[in-house]
What we know:
Helices cover 87% and strands 0% of the residues. With 89 residues, the chain is mainly α. InterPro entries: PLAC_motif_containing (IPR006461). Keywords: Membrane, Transmembrane, Transmembrane helix.
Amino acid sequence: MPRTVSYLIAGVLSFAAGMMQIFGIPTWFMIPVSRIIVTVVTFKQRSETKDKYGIRKDAFSDVMTAWCCTFCALAQHEQQVKQNHVVQQ
């Protein structure tokens, strides 16, 4: 997983935990909100990578991959970046 994305996900989850403690927000509310934020970040990252490397985009497929298998999507992203980095050198 790219380091910046993993830091971002950790930050989102820490923010959610902080909001629960500060404002007394119930866990059942913050978990889905955090999940949606992580999905949006993952989708955006996939979209930018596909634009950068000229890969055909399918918004529905990308959203579903980001939602259903976030870690698979991030691993695929990292593999694509590494593969293209080696080819460009």
